[in-house]
Design goal:
alpha/beta, eight-stranded parallel sheet, six-stranded mixed sheet, elongated
């Protein structure tokens, strides 16, 4: 079983013990006492042994088995004292001196230090003595690189394995992409003894959550976001609750949301809850794939292609599907088109994705390690068309304004015209709006039912029975969080000025955070019916879930979870 370890930075031993009790209550298996900021013999001249006694007491009274780590400042820790003092403390703890009736379960020391000429002999003697005692402690030999994957990674791992006294090997480095996780998993699979292999930073979350799948000795999780000891550590509550850490095993299938950024996506919350409800052996993760720094489309696609290809082609990861969001919906279709050329019997694209050039869903079916079927499809479109049909009745002949010209707008415009509506695409860039209409026209049975106009002209338009916002205007954290994407009040004025009876319509919002966007508030005030972004988000996720699980999605549960989370969000 992969252990869940809570690291505790020791500044006050009494508080550290309290935190260890909190870790036990939260569900941890073991704690790591990080004493490197506390242990400073040079500062305790009046009573040089006081700190050692307090550390021994900490070990003795810990409510959980513990690791004691005095991390050197050279590898990201806070210890700046002498190596002799640190080794003397470790020798004392390992021998059970200072009335530590039980030594710590593990001591952690950096590989660079453990193999230095002055230290290696003392380490060997210490561990030889420890092995001859009952309740013997073990040694974790660790290496860290906060910059990225070490250039000498393979050589370093081989050297660590050659060490005769390491009970556990630990390798942690900053992950620069999702692909770094796959190499960490290989290290776990090939290890000759218990091993910890973790990627730091947001790209390394996969290595922490999936440690049980690949036999990792332990993974670290903090009690609270503010108590992390390394970048990218999840909290205990997220690891056990959101990601269902205890249910992850070798057979667990991996899913995720691919985009940039994805750290605040609601999708992991929703899909992991569905897996739990249906008792599906799967886990859903945020999978960040960044766009290029200078918005180079080719560079962004190259990164997406390399990452998604690596996830799909890895024979042991069991990557089985994903949600794809901004900025990669178009990249997913492009990726699928390339794979279609090489594997036409395996890959497929639905008609909406082909027509719009954008997709948000991927399903991978496997037989053992081999991909049998790969399906790319779009659930954004039915998730928008369905609620509008429910609100307006049959869509034939209905006049609808779609605001925006991105991938979501293209898909929804296509779906509405296919359903019989007359659609006008409004956008700030008339050129982009025209390009959308031209591109979709080749795939529409009635291309004349789709037109375009500048966003400015929307104020003087009339007769629209529905307005769909497909822009990020009004989104929390977006470019215009207080903005209103469509001038609802002026649409009503336009009806009156044209001699038509002023009438209200339906507003469909695709933004779901906040639930009540400025556009929705204005629409309600004007007497329009509103369909919030949560409705569409839940429906598109439900359609994805049904494709992945083969079971009816629990829409009410999904809706309740998202609304509860958004209502309590500090944003």
């Amino acid at each position: 079983m992969t252990l869940l370890c809570v690291p505790i930075v020791v500044r006050d031993p009494a508080l550290a013990l309290s935190e260890a009790a909190n870790a036990k209550a939260a569900g941890a298996d073991i704690v790591e006492f990080r004493i490197d900021e506390f242990f400073d013999p040079a500062a305790a001249e009046a009573d040089p042994d006081r700190q050692e006694r307090e550390i021994a007491k900490l070990v003795r009274e810990s409510p959980l088995p513990c690791i004691v780590t005095c991390r050197s400042s050279k590898e990201g820790g806070g210890y700046v004292g002498s190596e002799d003092d640190r080794l003397s403390l470790y020798e004392s703890l390992a021998s059970g001196d200072r009335k530590a009736t039980l030594p710590p379960r593990y001591l952690d020391i950096e590989f660079v230090s453990a193999t230095s000429r002055d230290v290696s002999g003392r380490i060997a003697k210490m561990m030889t003595g420890a092995s001859q005692r009952e309740n013997a402690n073990g040694l974790i030999v660790s290496a860290h690189d906060f910059r990225g994957r070490p250039n000498d990674l393979t050589r370093r791992i081989l050297a660590m394995r050659a060490d005769g006294f390491a009970s556990v090997i630990k390798m942690a480095y900053r992950a620069r992409s999702l692909r770094d996780n796959l190499e960490l998993f290989e290290l776990l699979r090939d290890s000759d003894r218990p091993m910890i292999a973790l990627g730091m930073g947001e790209f390394g979350l996969m290595s922490r959550v999936l440690a049980p799948k690949f036999g990792g000795f332990l993974t670290f999780a903090s009690l609270r976001p503010e108590t992390v000891t390394a970048p990218g550590q999840p909290t205990v509550s997220d690891l056990l609750g959101l990601y269902r850490f205890r249910s992850i095993r070798k057979t667990t299938k991996v899913y995720g949301v691919i985009g940039w950024p994805v750290g605040h996506s609601m999708s992991p919350l929703v899909h992991n809850a569905v897996f739990a409800e249906h008792q599906i052996d799967g886990v859903y993760l945020p999978l960040p794939v960044p766009s290029s720094e200078n918005n180079d489309e080719e560079a962004t696609f190259a990164s997406f292609k390399a990452t998604l290809g690596a996830l799909i082609d890895d024979p042991r990861l069991d990557f089985s599907g994903g949600s794809v969001t901004i900025p990669h919906k178009e990249n997913l279709v492009r990726f699928a088109r390339e794979r279609l050329k090489s594997d036409p019997g395996i890959w497929s694209l639905d008609s909406t994705s082909l027509a719009t050039g954008a997709a948000n869903s991927l399903l991978i079916e496997r037989e053992g390690a081999r991909v049998q079927r790969a399906r790319v499809f779009n659930t954004d479109v039915p998730a928008a068309v369905g609620p509008l049909r429910a609100a307006l009745g049959a869509l034939e002949g209905k006049s609808i304004a779609v605001v925006g010209a991105g991938g979501v707008a293209r898909g929804i415009a296509f779906g509405l015209v296919q359903a019989g509506a007359t659609v006008t695409v409004f956008n700030r860039s008339l050129e982009k709006a025209a390009a959308v209409v031209a591109a979709l026209g080749r795939y529409l049975e009635k291309p004349k039912n789709l037109s375009f106009a500048s966003i400015e002209s929307l104020s003087g338009s009339s007769g629209f029975e529905a307005v769909v916002n497909c822009t990020p205007v009004g989104m929390t954290g977006g470019p215009e969080p207080a903005g209103i994407a469509a001038p609802i009040d002026k649409l009503l004025d336009a009806d009156a000025n044209s001699g038509n009876k002023s009438q209200s319509g339906v507003v469909l919002e695709t933004v779901y955070n906040p639930i009540q966007t400025p556009l929705m508030q204005a629409a309600k005030k004007a007497g329009w019916m509103v369909i919030d972004g949560v409705t569409m988000f839940i429906e598109q996720a439900a359609l994805q879930s049904e494709a992945w699980t083969g079971k009816s999605a629990p829409r009410q549960l999904m809706d309740r979870i998202v609304r509860a989370e958004l209502n309590q969000s500090p944003d």
